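Marked as duplicate of an earlier ticket. Keeping the data here for the record.
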Amino acid sequence: MIDFYMPSKGRSDIFDPENKGSTFNSLYGLGYKINIVVYQEEYLEYKKSARKNRRNANIVVCDGGKGIAFKRWFIGQHAEKVGLEKFIMCDDDLKFLVRRGVKLFPLVGAGLMEMVDKLAFDLQNYAHAGVSSRAGNNHIKEDYVENARLIQLQAYRVKEYNLVQHQRIKFMEDFDVTLQLLKMGLKNKVYYKWAKSDVTNSKGGCSDYRTVKNQSECAEKLAKLHPDCVRVVQKNGDGAYGKRKDVVVQWKKAYEIGLKNGKT
């Protein structure tokens, strides 16, 4: 078994059984300990919602700082404090899928447990692991690849996670953590047999303070932190952020840099 940490903000309805886009509801009842990480000012609201919906939830107060980067740092510290060797951190608005042939189908129950337990098992040989996003899943035929992007759901070994520098960047901090681990010569494993999708920039979470401007600034900052494997590009998409600066990341090159430097 492995414990989950789920940063959440402004989404106390994640406990509502009718909320089909709630990661908590997908995992609830499968036997995993799910830590919902919230700020002090939202604790009572989340507690009330859990009680109203008759959900047993472990709500952890993250105090002393703000922002998703701070919460991610806090989670690593909390995991170490309570004696965990590994954990899974994930967004609170995910749906899970499994690939059968060339199509993706909903993943629930025993199938979802298989995915989670496989990630936990893989942390014996990998410092970090995860599953692919729905977008682009069909581009990879293999069940998994090594040294690729981790986003929205990441499994970590606590020791290595806490060795990297956190909070160097407001957003894309998860990219920075992955790149630092790869540059330490610590490979990752990303499954394409499974996938996850989310509601991009939905109400709550980072949506109230993540703007095109600061997203673009973080793209520039990530490139400055990792000029050897990150390049800034202009995106003109019609998604949540529209025109913005984004990044192209050479994940495998980051790992090669780690091997070259002997950081294994």
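See parent ticket for discussion. The chain has eight helices and twelve strands.
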